[in-house]
Design a protein that fits this description.
Strand content: 15-25%
Largest sheet: 4 strands, antiparallel
Number of strands: 31
CATH class of one domain: Alpha Beta
Structural class: alpha/beta
CATH architecture of one domain: Alpha-Beta Complex
CATH superfamily of one domain: Valyl/Leucyl/Isoleucyl-tRNA synthetase, editing domain
Helix content: 40-55%
Radius of gyration: 37 Å
Mean pLDDT: 91
Amino acid sequence: MAISTTYSPAEIEEKWYEAWMAAQVFKSTPDERPAYTITIPPPNVTGILHMGHILNNTIQDILIRRKRMQGFNACWVPGTDHASIATEAKVVKMLADQGIAKNDLSREEFLKHAFEWKEKYGGIILSQLRKLGASCDWDRTNFTMNEDYSKEVIQVFCDLYEKGFIYRGYRMVNWDPSAQTAVSDEEVYHKDTDGNLYHVKYPIAGDPDSFVIIATTRPETILADAAVAINPEDERYKHLHGKKVIVPLVNREVPIILDDYVDLEFGTGCLKVTPAHDVNDYEIGQRHELPIINAMNPDGTISEAGELYIGMDRFAVRKQIVRDLKEAGLMEKIEQYRHAVGHSERTDAVIEPRLSEQWFLNMQDISKPALKAVVEGEVNLIPGKFVNTYRHWMENVRDWCLSRQLWWGHRIPAYYIAGTNDHVVAPTDEEALAKAKAKTGNDALTMADLRQDEDVLDTWASSWLWPISVFKGISEPDNPDINYYYPTNDLVTAPEILFFWVARMIIAGYQYRGEKPFNNVYLTGIVRDDKRRKMSKSLGNSPDPLDLIDQYGADSIRVGMLFASPAGNDLLYKEDLIVQGSKFANKIWNAFRLIKGWETTDAPASEKDRLAMAWVAERIEEVKAEIQDHFDKFRISDALMSVYKLIWDDFCSWFLEMIKPPYGEPASQETVDGSIKLFGELLKILHPFMPFITEELWHELKERGEGEFLTVTQMADARPADRAILDQMELIKEVVSGVRNFKAEKQMPKHDPIELFINTKEQPIFEKHSGLLEKLLITSNISFVTEKVDGTGSLRVQAHEFYIPLVGVDLDAEKEKIQKEIEYTEGFLQKVVKKLSNERFVQNAPEQVVGLERKKQADAEAKLEVLKKALTELGA
């Protein structure tokens, strides 16, 4: 059947993905081959495909497909993360749309709705990845709240608790009032925000006419003030030692305390102390045994402890309290103030520091092996610039707040014993009851006497086990899968989760397997638009990847995204890149159609065809070695460019021109067969990058048996390329390009035959390749000479001189053109020499500026020499 005249990616891509799936070519089970394993960074179960996913998963698929073709047992494990905060928010909204409030449901009823939501929407992103060509072992699809996975998460919590790493403490945490849960330091991002600095008068107790001025950006926290602090060395306030102030509006009398924390140079030198609403204030409060007044409810409204504005939202209170302070004459002034405000990564709500009893993981000792692993290169971060960032974070690591005030997630396995202030930690109700009986000595206890903690674990406290738990490495530590696939090989992820996830996985790996979880961490850049903004739905600057796939095909998107994505550097997305990927696909398609469309003869291949085929064969080996080096160094985009140039320039442009039969004449069957064989080798190299079009053309090359897919065809390692053939052909290409440029400059007809005289000491090389030169240059005759031939122009390539008759060239016009160029260049040179003869310029100008002028002089002198020689050759 004749190959289609146009490349239609939609039908081809769907056809081949279904065929791969039916044949289970992506399935992996342990065997005698070396394993190559990637575990996908599990996207949120709420997620849908975006451009960052396209980049990340394209790179993973390229790595896994290449290893599969190199004989490895390639296993790419897919899955999703339950995403506690994001998913709970989705479910709460869904219920609200149905007129159901979360608080009207029991925990079990809510979780039933949540799992129903997950079953309906949770697999969308994984199905979308198939359209990209992701060659995952879909039978291994995991989910962080699957039963087996959940057991491992709970088992690890219990183990770390027993080892003394996990503890429960009353601490200041980052509170997300929108999700109404604690979030870790790493889940808070700071955004520069325009606000105000409010200078408020605090009357001195017993002296209503005297005040201290205190500046604050959060006047709503005045309701929780417990003291005013000054530095004991501050001479301005010595007279206030031992006195008290009246908290504005609340009229609460609080002490003036002395503390070195107060900066004498900052603001007014007076600091309001609100222990329940600021980390530093809390520490001051602890030192001075101040009362803790929690003036805010979990949802960001004012609590009864605030006394005023009860039930009002914190930002509404900010506006109202400013009005009331002005009315009371207690507002000294208001200044505009730009400062960094903490926001929740999950909901974008402004974070409130909040005192809360939470579960924490002590990170100091457990982190040390993971720090050492990266610093000493046992785990490689690519690019290496991230090592110092990683080291800084790990050397200053804070305890990890593990608990979240949600229902969707892994419920913390802690049980509080009724009638006591004690608790037990255990993986099941039965074990918890047994522990409680042993701890209290009360055998009459029942489950009714135990109350399980209401909180769930931070989502990262499950995904940090991902490379282990997808293979059941915690519950079955010696099973065949974990022993075969772990440690995994490469992790491809984004720099922004280097600490959320990557560092913690390394910690877990050493804690539970005694070794690293992966060898290399390839950190991709962020996909940005042409204004360097991160692509996001909220900005409306991100295209829908599925629309792009429908329009251009998955192969084109894969190539387009990689054209500008070096590791660790941001990718500036332009649709032109995708268009170029589409053009590349069409170029390949049409090249194949051209070869397959030639009429053939049984005549043997010409010498020039054989030389051309030998050259491409060596170029393939050269490029195979080149891209192997790129892959070894994770220069994936460079590897693609090497393949791109091999196919577009060497094969489609040079090679096809070399072997193309004259119009209307047949090609040698030997040449066509050789070209098809070479094309097949190109398809192997290209397949990891563009799996669909290559699979289609692989089956167009010849009839294939069942299971003969390109995606599982073995690709031999590169052999040493023949440098003599490569160097000779590079010389021929350089000569051809030089002659073509010469003809263009002289306005000689492009397709008219020319004579070519060659002055060289290496005549055999050009004799060997004379057929190619004649074909490419449309020469009527090639002669070898030892001196300049009259009536010719000269061209120098490397150590060889070429003379070309100036047939059809208007010599007088050419002379006039060269003479004008000489005059212009002499004038330019004169100006440069004048500038360089100025001693003041030479002595005072920067060295690089003077150096540039000297280079201009040298270039102009060299150009004049060439122009004058050319004029002489024309008989002037």
